Amino acid sequence: MANIRALVFDVFGTVVDWRGGVAREAEKFLKRHAADALDPGVFADAWRARYQPAMEEVRSGRRPFTRLDVLHRENLEAILPEMGIDLEDVAEDELAALNLAWHRLDPWPDAVAGLQRLKRGFIIAPLSNGNVILMLDMAKRAGLPWDAILGAEVAGAYKPSPQAYLRTVDILGMSSGEVMMVAAHNSDLAAARRCGLKTAFVARPREHGPEQTSDLVPLEDWDISVGSFLELAEALGV
Question: Would you put residue 133 in left (φ > 0), alpha (ψ -120 to 50) or beta?
Fold first, then answer.
């Protein structure tokens, strides 16, 4: 651990509560369109379910790199008819505003204080699939004290592609062993470890709501496994 110079963070689910934030925004939208019988959490889950398949089109090379804001908008337009909402009944500015829900996500209760503490000893930055303006808007609203904003278009790749990790390490001017990936997702950490990064698992047992079944515990012997960013700071001695 003595060689670690930087901590890079998964953001959606690890730093911020994407499901709660999207559901909050969706609830207002659904009420305006007389669809308030729909569960906003289910709406958020349906939108998120298209996240990985959309990025896989880019990772596979079937589509050029496309920023996440664009993919989110396409996915939103795809799920609305599934929810019984006619796209022709939704104004363009309303669609655009709802798509920005991903820019207005709330941090987990320990996130800001934990990041501020970790920042005392390490360079901290997101290693997210989110694009730069999404990360900037989120950080400004939530008070996330990043040292740098490294959106996916900086690396030009989506996790878990190796380029996403290796290009970020290169941008930081460090070796892989000097960088620790912090995430609430075992698969993200596994991909980072294969690229030589150190790994820290932070449990977020309500990322997917009260009935979450995935990523409740570390599935491998990660370098550090904790329940909050404050515990991570303690484990790293800051």
Answer: alpha
Among the listed residues 16, 191, 23, the one whose alpha carbon sits nearest the alpha carbon of residue 106: 16
- Identify whether the C-beta of residue 13 lies closer than 8 Å to the C-beta of residue 61: no
| Bridge partners (DSSP) listed for residue 17 | 106
Taking the CB of residue 165, how many other CB atoms lie within 10 A of it? 26
Which residue in 202, 236, 237 sits closest to 218, CA to CA? 202
Q: The pTM is what?
A: 0.95
Whether 36 contacts 30, CB under 8 Å: yes
Residue range 183-224, pLDDT digits in tens: 999 999 999 999 999 999 999 999 999 999 999 999 999 999
Q: What is the pLDDT of residues 143-173, one digit of tens each?
A: 999 999 988 999 999 999 999 999 999 999 9
3-state secondary structure of 202: strand
* CB of 126 closer than 8 Å to CB of 8: yes
Rounded Cα gap, residues 58 and 227, in angstroms: 33
Helix residue ranges per DSSP H, 33-89 = 40-49, 51-59, 68-82
Q: What is the largest CA-CA distance in the chain?
A: 57
- For residue 197, the Cα-to-chain-centroid distance in whole angstroms is 18
In the chain, DSSP finds a helix count (H) and a strand count (E) of 11, 7
Determine if residue 49 is left, alpha or beta; phi over 0 gives left, psi from -120 to 50 gives alpha, anything else beta.
alpha
**Other C-beta atoms lying within 10 Å of the C-beta of residue 156:** 13
